[in-house]
Amino acid sequence: MWWVLVAQVFGLTSVILVAVWMGHYRGGFAWQGDPTHQFNYHPLFMVIGMIFLYGDGLKAVFDSHNLKKKPDPNLYSLHSWVGLMTIIFFGFQWVAGFVTFLWPGLALRLKNIYKPIHVFWGILIYAFALAAAMMGIVEKALFSKDLKYNKFESEGILINFLGIFLLAFGGIVVYLVTN
Amino acid sequence: MWWVLVAQVFGLTSVILVAVWMGHYRGGFAWQGDPTHQFNYHPLFMVIGMIFLYGDGLKAVFDSHNLKKKPDPNLYSLHSWVGLMTIIFFGFQWVAGFVTFLWPGLALRLKNIYKPIHVFWGILIYAFALAAAMMGIVEKALFSKDLKYNKFESEGILINFLGIFLLAFGGIVVYLVTN
Ligand code: HEM
Ligand code: HEM
Ligand code: HEM
Ligand code: HEM
Ligand SMILES: O=C1O[C@@H]([C@H](O)CO)C(O)=C1O
């Protein structure tokens, strides 16, 4: 009811904020010719993808590392570990959900045993995605050499509001799912 | 039952990992004479404090900024905003819990209306503290100039495991509280 609307507004605000951050402050978007700006799709697609899809967002960041003249290493950070864990759990959840709920003739008893497990892990995976996103935001803020984060520049403030909206959005989603 | 034990082990592991990180890799602990090493109490006390107390942990980080020859700014980061929000909500929750549950003769009906609100916010505040801690870990990893985080040095690996244990610990705590 009420909260669904507030969640929509917060979720949409998060998408707009991350789009403005990457599109305006971080120099806009590009695909494979330009690894630095290809990176900028990663946060945008990942944040949208917490609602829609992951695929292109991951391609954006792996390409942005591997296609550089001097390639960057992959999967060294806590953010990337939690991010990958999230995606793997997400895959398991997806397969388990599909099999259990849609396999023709599976015993109703089994469906009923699995259901609370599905709901709990669904929420946990969502929380992991949120944690990954929050850490990714912090990384990008600190990796941006032309941003003096500790000088309260407008980009830094925008980053903080993005994080706060994303967290609030996540809180409301979990509230809605559990109530 | 089982999970309580696992949670204990993960929680304790987190405390040990953060203590080793700060005590061994980050040069150990000191109080007001030495702001850089005074900082090292902040993560340790904050992580312990997710179970015990905040006070000294916050003093450690504010001192570490303010007592420097060239003081660092306060409260510019997403981490610090989420951290402060957590502490403020924690304070409200504490007062509201105290008043509602312990005020002599408060109508039972009011207690019952407030109870699910208290439980929901309790869990949410806990999740906020976890998010703040995860972001703080990422910040500290990237602020440590003598750590090449993307070179898979042992300190970096320890940091990632700390984050994973903390997240797992948090997940189990929420599971226990909701089941
Ligand atoms: C749930 C959403 C997200 C997931 C699952 C995720 C996942 C990942 C993964 C797996 C990597 C490693 C890529 C590699 O090793 O080449 C990565 C890197 C990165 N991500 Fe994300 N990400 C998410 C959201 C975000 C957001 C919102 C930002 C914010 C700007 C961000 C910033 C970064 C940065 C700066 C890197 C490169 C440094 C590193 O490897 O940690 N991510 N992400
Ligand atoms: C990785 C992907 C998935 C996630 C994160 C996820 C998460 C969730 C969550 C959080 C709920 C609880 C919703 C609520 O109580 O309002 C739920 C319910 C449900 N999911 Fe999934 N799910 C996923 C994939 C699937 C798949 C692939 C199927 C089946 C094809 C499925 C079938 C269901 C069903 C039938 C329910 C309702 C259970 C009930 O009766 O309460 N889910 N899911
Ligand atoms: C729930 C636990 C935590 C809370 C509530 C919290 C809160 C805060 C607050 C309010 C500040 C701002 C201090 C100032 O402006 O002078 C701060 C700074 C800082 N914290 Fe934490 N903290 C927590 C856990 C951690 C952890 C586990 C680390 C990991 C190493 C960490 C690393 C930092 C760093 C590097 C700073 C200085 C940069 C900045 O202001 O963001 N924090 N913290
Ligand atoms: C900021 C501090 C607080 C937090 C984060 C917090 C959090 C929680 C949580 C998560 C629960 C649910 C536990 C469960 O269902 O097993 C709970 C239950 C409870 N809390 Fe708090 N709480 C706080 C302060 C207080 C205070 C100050 C009081 C009273 C003096 C209080 C009284 C209670 C009571 C009586 C319950 C049990 C409700 C029931 O019957 O299920 N809490 N609290
Ligand atoms: O800020 C960053 O941008 C990308 C990449 O460097 C762009 O080429 C990345 O991995 C960062 O840490």
Written account of the structure:
Two copies of one chain form a homodimer. By secondary structure, chain A is an all-alpha fold. Chain A has helices at residues 2-25, 35-39, 41-49, 55-66, 78-102, 108-143, 154-178. In chain A, helix 1 (2-25) packs antiparallel against helix 3 (41-49). Chain A is globular, with a radius of gyration of 18 Å. Chain A starts with a helix and ends with a helix. Chains A and B meet through helix 5, helix 6 and helix 7 of A and helix 5, helix 6 and helix 7 of B. The site of one protoporphyrin IX containing FE (HEM) has 25 residues of chain B, from helix 3, helix 4, helix 5 and helix 6.
Strand portion of chain A, in percent? under 5%
Bound compounds, each kind once, are:
protoporphyrin IX containing FE, ascorbic acid
**Care to count the β-strands of chain A?**
0
As a whole number of angstroms, the C-alpha radius of gyration of chain A is 18 Å
Series of secondary-structure elements of chain A, N-terminal to C-terminal: HHHHHHH
- Largest binding interface between chains: A-B, 37 and 37 residues
Query: Helix count of chain A?
Result: 7
What is the percent of helical residues of chain A?
over 70%
Termini separation of chain A comes to 11 Å
> Spans of chain A of 5+ residues with little confidence (pLDDT < 50)?
none
